[in-house]
Amino acid sequence: MTQRSASREAATAAIDPLPARLLKRTALVVLGPVYFGFIAFVPLLCARRRGFAGWYWRLVKRACSWLLWLLSIRADMSAADRQALGDDTDSLIVINHRSHLDGFVLMDVVPDQKWFTFAAKKELFEAPFLRTGFNGAGLVEIDRKSGKLALETLSAAVRTMPARRSVVLFPEGTRARTDTLGPFKAGAVLVARETGRAIRPIVIRDSDQLLPRGKFVPRSGTIRVDVLPPFVCDPTVSVDEDLDRLRAAMLAVFDTP
């Protein structure tokens, strides 16, 4: 058995016995719509209240953690990495993308003192229900029809963010279709250069083993998350060179058994 095969087998080892998994998933089916529906409707009622953003951030984080627990999925990140992420400031978070579980896992492992948000396409904000929730969660509205406008909007949003808040960017642009990292797009490096922020790379592994492309019911298992040291762009080299250096640093961790 190769090291990669052994790693994947370890990742998909169920963390709960079958009776416990069945009980948890039954609870998710029965109670999940009520619990997660409540979270979705909260912004409609409370978005204008003072302190809402901080309270809602923690609520959404807890919901993601509960969802993973009910699915018998564990996110594994070292205490040192958790501390490094909790202390992180003035950064963009760049993470590879393996499956639909990635966002939930990131919400689960990030300490409460570290805030982050995502960029969402403009079309999603056109629905009033979604717009209220997205604004309450601090998502950044991006018009993807124009790359230049999207970059300007994202850079402007990052400049106004508090030091402890970061926007999360997926440099591959979509879920990788191969066993390695996909090609990186330049957006994260361009925004980092425009705003002067460092990039905090995060490598996620094995989420595609638990929820492969085309599947809707995840397996029980463990998803590994590694936090890399801050990546500082070098203005004396080209964007492509910075991008290659960033991808190489993340690939070295991704390929470690």
Automatic annotation (TrEMBL):
**EC?**
2.3.1.51
Q: Which GO terms describe its molecular function?
A: 1-acylglycerol-3-phosphate O-acyltransferase activity
Q: Which InterPro entries match?
A: Plipid/glycerol_acylTrfase
Limits of the Phospholipid/glycerol acyltransferase domain: 91-207
What CDD domains does UniProt report for this protein, alphabetically? Answer: LPLAT_AGPAT-like
Supply one GO BP term. Answer: phosphatidic acid biosynthetic process
Q: Which Pfam families match?
A: Acyltransferase
Which keywords accompany this UniProt record? Acyltransferase, Membrane, Transferase, Transmembrane, Transmembrane helix
The annotated pathway is: Lipid metabolism
Parts of the chain that traverse the membrane: 27-47
The protein, known as: 1-acyl-sn-glycerol-3-phosphate acyltransferase
**From which source organism is this entry?**
Antarctobacter heliothermus
Phylogenetic lineage: Bacteria, Pseudomonadati, Pseudomonadota, Alphaproteobacteria, Rhodobacterales
